[in-house]
Specification:
Layout: E1 10-11, H1 14-17, H2 24-29, E2 34-35, H3 41-46, H4 59-62, H5 64-77, E3 81-83, H6 91-94, H7 98-113, E4 119-125, H8 130-133, H9 136-152, E5 157-163, H10 166-176, E6 183-187, H11 200-209, E7 225-229, H12 234-251, E8 256-261, H13 291-303, E9 308-311, H14 317-326, H15 328-331, E10 333-334, H16 354-357, H17 362-367
Parallel strand pairs: 1-10, 2-9, 3-4, 4-5, 5-6, 6-7, 7-8, 8-9
Keywords: Metal-binding, Methyltransferase, Transferase, Zinc
GO molecular function: betaine-homocysteine S-methyltransferase activity; S-methylmethionine-homocysteine S-methyltransferase activity; zinc ion binding
Pfam families: S-methyl_trans (PF02574)
Length: 385
């Protein structure tokens, strides 16, 4: 059942925004819902600040106001986490720019997080090296260089995200654990598992079991938060999360669960996700989920036991607001962006047209099946690979 606001649900006050923030694990251990942020790469590419290809985030240096504004919009929409815009910002992809970009990204995220009850997460992703030579020492060195900046900037926690291979994700977790900060790890896989055939359940177990200082014989838990991000749409991502959860339960392991899916409907994609679709990356708009779709996604994720719920590519601030509004009964408040958005279209009840006034109710939007808007296009695509 989708969430309904109670009379006690309120808009978050300035005092609550300014309160001392709890850490990520304190929040999750207490059963709180943590709302992540949305997509930066595709969003800023559409706005003219990022070049498709390597998708490197030099916009944090070249156009900081654009990145700052997007952070602000996600915060206002209800995000509890400002993730640094550091995707692909390692030395291998950015050469001499990498350090300045990582530092600037931390500064921007911290500046905006300080305006609300939000945490800053330093994020790193898979390398372009792993597929070619799997040099563990060299790859870990790249991770460690980024980690040094995150530690210097004192981010609240760390995220290893967007990994196709469980082995490389484990390497990232092992490096990030050296900081002593909480570590989250998400893979960009679907129900079929990683590119080496490691199942989602096995991936989850590997991430939680990743050792700190393996060469020193230490045996501490790896990632405290595990899940999936990117590559797949909401429903496929939740299917993968079920498999990860089952894998942990079967192994007798525990971890907090996290999901940050794409915003696109893509039941026709293959094992590689949306990068295999002919529309990627410049013609994905017809696949964008509605705010009501995302409310359903948030409720299903919550019912699955996931408490860190956000979005990845394509997620705009209004999609994050949809998560925050759906889970407002559990969180106890609405985000500032809801001040201009009546629940379930209630703002339409003053419209001059009676048929539009009739849409100011939950039943209408909950049961709507939107037309594609592309009458001469096929309903599905054939992946290129």
């Amino acid at each position: 059942k989708l969430g309904t606001l109670s009379p006690q649900t309120k808009h978050i006050s300035k005092e609550e925004e300014e309160k001392c923030t709890l850490g990520i694990l304190e929040r999750l251990d207490a059963g709180e819902v943590v709302v992540g942020d949305g997509g930066f790469l595709l969003t800023l590419e559409k706005r003219g600040y990022v070049k498709a290809g390597l998708w490197t985030p030099e916009a944090v240096v070249e156009h900081p106001n654009a990145v700052r504004q997007l952070h602000m919009e996600f915060l206002r929409a209800g995000s509890n986490v400002m993730q640094t815009f550091t995707f692909s910002a390692n030395e291998d992809n950015m050469e001499s720019q990498w350090e300045a970009v990582n530092a600037a990204a931390c500064d921007l995220a911290q500046e905006v997080a300080g305006k609300g009850d939000a945490l800053v997460a330093g994020g790193l992703c898979q390398t372009s090296l792993y597929k070619h030579h799997k040099d563990e020492d060299r790859i870990k060195k790249l991770f460690r260089l980024q980690l040094e900046v995150f530690v210097r900037k004192n981010v609240d926690f760390l995220i290893a995200e967007y990994f196709e291979y469980a082995e490389e994700a484990v390497w990232a977790v092992e490096v990030l654990k050296e900081s002593g900060k909480p570590v989250a790890a998400t893979m960009c896989i679907g129900p079929e598992g990683d590119m080496h055939g490691v199942t989602p359940g096995e991936c989850a177990v590997k991430l939680v079991k990743a050792e700190l200082g393996r060469q020193r014989g230490a045996n501490l838990q790896g990632a405290s938060i595990i899940g999936v991000n990117c590559r797949f749409g909401p429903w496929t991502s939740l299917k993968t999360m079920r498999l990860m959860k089952e894998g942990l339960q079967a192994a007798g392991l525990k971890a907090h669960l996290m999901v940050q899916s794409l915003v696109f409907h893509m039941p026709d994609c293959g094992k590689g996700g949306f990068v295999d679709l002919p529309e990627y990356p410049f013609a994905l708009e017809p696949r964008v989920a509605t705010r009501w779709d995302i409310q359903k996604y948030a409720r299903e994720a919550y019912n699955l036991g996931i408490r860190y719920i956000g979005g990845c590519c394509g997620f705009e601030p209004y999609h994050i607001r949809a998560i925050a509004e759906e889970l407002a009964p559990e969180r106890g408040f609405l985000p500032p962006a809801s001040e201009k958005h009546g629940s379930w279209g209630s703002g339409l009840n003053m419209h001059t047209k009676p048929w539009i006034r009739a849409r100011a109710r939950r039943e209408y939007w909950e049961n709507l099946l939107p037309a594609s808007g592309r009458p001469f296009c096929p309903s599905l695509s054939k992946p290129d690979v």
